[in-house]
Queue: 4 jobs
Job 1
Amino acid sequence: MKIPYPDIVLAMARYDAGDPKRIQHALKVFGFASVIGEREGFPPEMLAALRTAAILHDIGIHNCEKKYGSAAGKYQEKEGPPVARALLAPFGLPEKLTERVCFLIAHHHTYAGIDGPDYQALIEADLLVNLYEDGASPEQTLAAGRKYFRTPTGRALLSAAGGARSGPPFRAQKIAGPVWRDS
């Protein structure tokens, strides 16, 4: 099945209308997630779940702010999946894909118990954007790289992105951790 990413992006943008920061954040995460997934050789179904979740990963933020007065990750994980499911319904995606997308959204701020390459890639893509948007120091970026990044592509992107400001904070060397490839 061909996934209508441009239409899903437009649905997300309409939902987040008037909030360019959130729209641009989602598109940056989508870009990084796509690069990681493609470079790591994810199978098509996994890549589809990753890309779709990346577009919608923060879709529950407005509900969180209204309901809890906070956009904290634990609230996003709770409020995001129902909104994502409603936004995806008109596209007639396979239920298995929608379920995985909602699972990824419901866990994108949970860094323990990562159960697959798509989950790992979403964590890395979101962190790449958050570290930059939050103005993380080279030391914070290096610590995040060592603690959370496992894919060679994610590590290379972190090194390149961090290097643009103050020299490479993280070198993509041989570091223990899974390499996500189906062979």
Job 2
Amino acid sequence: MSPDRKYLLGGLLLLFGIPLLVIFFQMHNRPDTGPGSKLYRQHCSACHGQDGKGLRALYPPLSDSPYLIEKQALLVCLIRVGIRGSLVTADGSYNQRMPAFPDLTPGDLSQLVLYLQTRWGKTNQISSVKNVEQQLLLCP
């Protein structure tokens, strides 16, 4: 291969290859893609908002929620069985009913919890299906 052809090939690779790789990695590393994100949009975003900021004094924000940081073991049960009554967070007290999602499988719950923790809990602790199944046994 001639040197001119090598430079041309290298230039084309730089011109097209690197930007395509950057786009590929950006699309696949966004926190708002994947099964957990889809489950969040389907089941949670109507109340907590797409941005997780909640809805004024009705529904709590998810960012830095104790259920995503200190009370992670309760998160699976909270999603599965819902909650009634007062819920106190650092942002205030909320007294709206959170619906139960009994139809979510342990795999769904695992994906959803991982998404919540990664996006708003500042952690990416793996919540395996096996761990979720064990936590579900402790739910009321």
Job 3
Amino acid sequence: MKKVISIFFITILSVCFLFEGCGKMSDRDYVSKIIKLSLPQGATIVAKNTHSGFLGDGTYFAKITFSAVEIKPFLEKIKANKWQPLPLKKDIDALLYGGTINGIEYADFLAKEVGMPKVKNGYWTFVDRNTEKSTELLERYSYNFDLAIFDTDTNTLYVYQLDT
């Protein structure tokens, strides 16, 4: 009986390792899901995902660059989907880049941690996935959000997802 159980568990583990990569979304599909827009096929994506563990805490950060031909149609999609023109809201800006709000100093480690520059010209969208929506963003114990910033000076899209 022990031998049968051992063989069963070894078989299950082998199947899990064999198919570990199956079902994972490509970065193109994952970014498209986050921003709710399809990316042009020629867009170049450099991404890093640290989500892991039982609760899936971590970050996803992607830097997407576009060819000159792809910019105008993508920018039209952004505007049609009601992305906001920069600057960011003060609380989001302080959370990412640091700053002082109501006499409270906020560190700037989030943007630095993933290498996201402060963008001056462009558009942004923010989806708060936190269940504590009644609490102000900067007063929370944990963060779950998706942020996308399109830099119109460099034709670069930054996508940042945080789950704590």
Job 4
Amino acid sequence: MVRSPYPESDSGEYEELLAVPSLELDAAFVHQHRADRSGNALWLGEDPFMDDLYVRAAERAFVSCEQVVPTEDLAGFADVTHLRISRLDVTGVIEAPEAPTSPSAPDYGRDEAFQKLYATASKDDDDWAEFSRRYLEVDEATYRAHVDELAASQSGSDPATEGDR
């Protein structure tokens, strides 16, 4: 326990805080909107979450991104406050558009149907086995085809006429 050096404004008492050691991360994997080949990466959304902190804390850090761009183009996407990840902290970069199923605005929104299926499947061993077989234990093309089928079933459209995701 550690005693706060700052008194509470209303009572004047000092709060007791619990101090814990930081986690030691072997590796961090984060997804960003844009990055250069060296690992400088930027987030275009409202909240960068804590990706930059994970990257700095990890022994090795890997960045996936929507698009790898030339270093000189990074500044054109957003102001410098969005360039939160430095190449000095990054081990590797891969271009992986639409990699996360969570939103990556402005590039794309949240896939609600997939998120709901994932959350539901995670509650039952048999459902999870089926989800894993269909979406995780397959190659990229099959995964994308199954995600497109799911999206089409939610919208009533035909995935064969939709084009690529």
